[in-house]
């Protein structure tokens, strides 16, 4: 069950989730001779469903819900509602990420008035009402949604990453102002979203990557100063709608976990155990009673390249260390990527579901 959950959907000794690129899902449907994603989720015994409107910048998942001025999109490039120019990569409905190539605040000489005058989309340009049907069709699963709310990612893409880091060092007030503006924008957007799906959605999923393989991308002190209070606003909003909160951050983020716990985060994703300080045994022992972990199944090396024995051992060890408090969500450490053998993914879920049904979890 998820930490402090009162929902019966979460009341299981081990929850299971499936996340993959569109191409991997297609290969699994063929492998199992299944017709659609719902049949696949049933086959894998996944407990979760992700609503289709996820992001307004990095991918195109929210474009079907957009009713504003016509967006500039070609076969190779697009300009998102935030004004960021993107190179279109292999498009993936909910979780794909394109490549930012130009930004509205990328000048080295931006001033406060440039940030204050930045035109953000009108939240009224988005119609979230179709999400109610999507919720109803998947009501038996734990429904995850909300906007990605990349107050860090959108901000550094707007400035350009190098300028963003320089401004943290030399003009932190500019970064703070932009992050504050993005937070206010996502507060309004998510409020409209939550009002449509209230009593139907279960988990608010938001994401910003603060970690690399070896440590935080910015100092812990800068993170606290710039992001802590803004995260609190978004998390408190979700809790006011009786939603659980799952926070995504790739990489080595162990120093931030105590802050997430203090903020009331319910679930941390994706738990990249190959990164520094992210050993699953240590994380489980130190934080397992206070927060749930979602992910950890290694999509970088073990699952794509391991033997069936490697995969079975890996999954068993993770469940042993992260599910001592019956609150781990067995899931990949990132989307299963294109090229991952379907039989290896089958081994992952065969192992999980075998362990669910025996004394291992008792």
TrEMBL record:
InterPro entries: Methanogen_methyltrans (IPR052024), UROD/MetE-like_sf (IPR038071), Uroporphyrinogen_deCOase (IPR000257)
Molecular function GO labels: uroporphyrinogen decarboxylase activity
Domain Uroporphyrinogen decarboxylase (URO-D): residue ranges: 108-354
PANTHER family attached to this UniProt entry: METHYLCOBAMIDE:COM METHYLTRANSFERASE MTBA
Protein name, entry field: Uroporphyrinogen decarboxylase (URO-D) domain-containing protein
Gene Ontology terms: biological process: porphyrin-containing compound biosynthetic process
Organism listed in the record: Maribellus comscasis
Origin: domain of life: Bacteria
Pfam family, one: URO-D
């Amino acid at each position: 069950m998820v930490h402090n959950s009162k929902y019966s959907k979460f009341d299981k000794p081990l929850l299971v989730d499936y996340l993959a690129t569109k191409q991997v899902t297609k290969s699994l449907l063929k492998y199992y001779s299944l017709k659609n994603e719902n049949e696949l989720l049933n086959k894998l015994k996944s407990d979760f469903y992700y609503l289709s409107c996820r992001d307004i910048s990095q991918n195109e998942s929210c474009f079907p819900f957009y009713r504003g001025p016509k967006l500039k999109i070609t076969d190779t490039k697009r300009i998102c509602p935030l004004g960021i120019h993107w190179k279109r990569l292999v498009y993936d409905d909910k979780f794909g990420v394109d490549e930012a190539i130009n930004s509205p605040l990328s000048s080295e000489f931006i001033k406060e008035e440039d940030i204050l005058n930045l035109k953000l989309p009108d939240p009224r340009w988005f119609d979230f009402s179709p999400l109610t049907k999507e919720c109803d069709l998947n009501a038996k699963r734990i429904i995850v949604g909300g906007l990605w709310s990349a107050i860090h990612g959108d901000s550094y893409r707007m400035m350009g990453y190098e300028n963003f880091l320089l401004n943290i060092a030399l003009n932190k007030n500019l970064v703070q102002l932009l992050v504050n503006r993005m937070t206010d924008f996502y507060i309004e957007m998510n409020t409209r979203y939550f009002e449509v799906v209230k009593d139907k959605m279960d988990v608010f999923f938001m994401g910003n990557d603060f970690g690399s393989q070896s440590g935080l991308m910015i100092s812990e002190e800068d993170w606290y100063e710039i992001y802590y209070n803004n995260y609190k606003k978004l998390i408190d909003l979700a809790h006011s709608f009786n939603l659980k909160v799952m926070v995504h951050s790739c990489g080595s983020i162990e120093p931030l976990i105590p802050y997430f716990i203090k903020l009331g985060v319910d679930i941390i994703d994706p738990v990249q155990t190959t990164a520094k300080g992210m050993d699953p045994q240590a994380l489980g022992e130190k934080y397992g009673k206070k927060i749930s972990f979602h992910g950890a199944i290694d999509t970088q090396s073990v699952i794509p390249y391991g033997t069936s024995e490697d995969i079975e051992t890996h999954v068993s060890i993770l469940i042993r260390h992260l599910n001592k408090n019956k609150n781990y969500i067995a899931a990949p450490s990132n989307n299963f990527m294109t090229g991952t053998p379907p039989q290896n993914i089958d081994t992952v879920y065969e192992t999980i579901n075998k362990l669910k049904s025996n004394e291992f979890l008792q």
